[in-house]
Amino acid sequence: MAELWSDAMLSxxxxxxxxxxxxxxxxxxxxxxVAEESRGAPDASTIGxxxxxxxxxxxxxxxAGFEEACSIWNGMIARRPALVARVSGAAxxxxxxxxxxxxxxPLSIRGGGHNIAGTALCDGGLMIDMTLRRGVHVDxxxxxxxxxxxxxxxxxxxxxxxxxxxxxxGIVSKTGVAGFTMGGGFGxxxxxxRYAADNLLSVDIVTADGERRRASxxxxxxxxxxxxxxxxxxxxxxxxxxxxxxxxxxxxxxxxVYPMAQAREVAHQFRRVTAAAPDELCCLLILRIxxxxxxxxxxLHGTPIAAIAACWTGDPAAGRDAMQALKSFGRPAADTITVxxxxxxxxMLDSSQPFGRRYYWKSDFFAxxxxxxxxxxxxxxxxxxxxxxxxxxxxxxxxxxxxDPELNAVGFRNAQYVLNVQAAWxxxxxxxxxxxxxxxxxxxxxxxxxxAAYINFMTEDEGDARVRAAYGDRLYARLAAVKAKFxxxxxxxxxxxxxxx
Length: 501
Ligand SMILES: Cc1cc2nc3c(=O)[nH]c(=O)nc-3n(C[C@H](O)[C@H](O)[C@H](O)COP(=O)(O)OP(=O)(O)OC[C@H]3O[C@@H](n4cnc5c(N)ncnc54)[C@H](O)[C@@H]3O)c2cc1C
Hints:
By secondary structure, the protein is of the alpha+beta class. The protein contains 15 helices and 19 strands. A hairpin with a 5-residue loop joins β8 (200-206) and β9. α13 (371-381) runs antiparallel to α14. Mean pLDDT is 92; it is low at 1-11 and 15-39. Flavin-adenine dinucleotide (FAD) is lined by residues 73, 108-116, 119-120, 130, 149, 170-172, 175-176, 178-180, 182-183, 185-187, 231-232, 236-237, 353, 456, 494-495.
């Protein structure tokens, strides 16, 4: 069937001269070949052939819906594809993959559109837009959740929470299932239920040759290994099948908030609580200017705060003592920790992360929260430059850290904490100031970090060395070998790229 498709797609090809690849010996040779071969959009009849092969709409610049499809979370990203295919299913994805490969066009894939580097968007190429495919199916008897590739985590929770099931997701419900999971993916329930990638049972994927494949422990196991942590390097996934865990719909969770003047004491308390925490407890230290959130007293709005958000994954009654250490510390200006719908907690931070704002992140992993790290974090938080910016320091470790480090391609399994310095602002003329704050923060804390990295938190300006640092030599070499097998031409090169070995 796949070969029939490939033959049929011959009409997709627009003839163009082949350019020599001067950088053939460099590790990015294939990426450059793809880029060099990409010389403008194919002609109208070639595009017409693709349109005829798709059931979903194919949009070009100026078409209704084109700009909306290209509007992603990070408003800093100016790239625009020439074509957007709003795919209706796997057959459309096959057509798009063949079209991009045969015409030497840059190819990108949009899931939730949340990637900070804006990797959903390519310049002048074809974007496969999965956002019409947001279906989620739960099999409560088997504890299995199946999500289409355009689903966001809010879609998954909407179906699974009424049944008391959860798949480990991030801390903002609008994040896409696809990019999140393939980079590893951690959030409130991960210390207990492991990373999203660890809970993946299978995927349906279209690889660079236009073949539809299933990847799981028993089918294409090398590809399945790489897809769990290796990001969007290996093909276009059309659906994900996860193992779900009992959790919710009610959960013990919330936030305690203090004025920034107490930030050092709050950070030390965070350290004490997290050092002794059972897997069920996940804490997140937040340093920022208080937004006008309804759960915060109005007198705090617009003032610098230090907060600890927390979630207990398990029977709420069993978590009360562990939470008490957070609730009884000092005199919080606000305390929202109580038994509530898990979805309320899971969506609590959504409004502080709107689509279209300007964002710039710097991040690192840490093995511990030492005095020097606390002092440096607080000192730089006090210099925060925007009311929308935030510093998030999340407790990791727990169950994922006890798994085999080579179980899959997640390269940060032994991390105990992750720091994400999130600059956010509205006015493009202020870019330099807010980016400088995030970079200075990162430069100051970096010597205390593990030196590892997370592909899902990388900005546009983080290069190959940082991608390598995300995996270490062994995982990186194994990923490059899988890449050579399934995408030797580096068609899927737009994200944090692992060139074929
Ligand atoms: C507000 C916010 C909160 C976040 N919170 C967390 C968190 O708590 N924990 C955490 O681990 N991460 C978190 N992240 C980071 C998140 O994991 C990444 O941004 C991730 O890339 C988002 O996935 P997406 O599908 O929304 O991204 P998109 O921008 O749509 O896609 C990113 C890349 O993923 C790949 N991709 C997407 N869809 C497919 C597909 N169907 N097939 C193949 N490749 C595909 C492509 O390479 C694409 O370029 C957060 C991000 C934001 C913006």
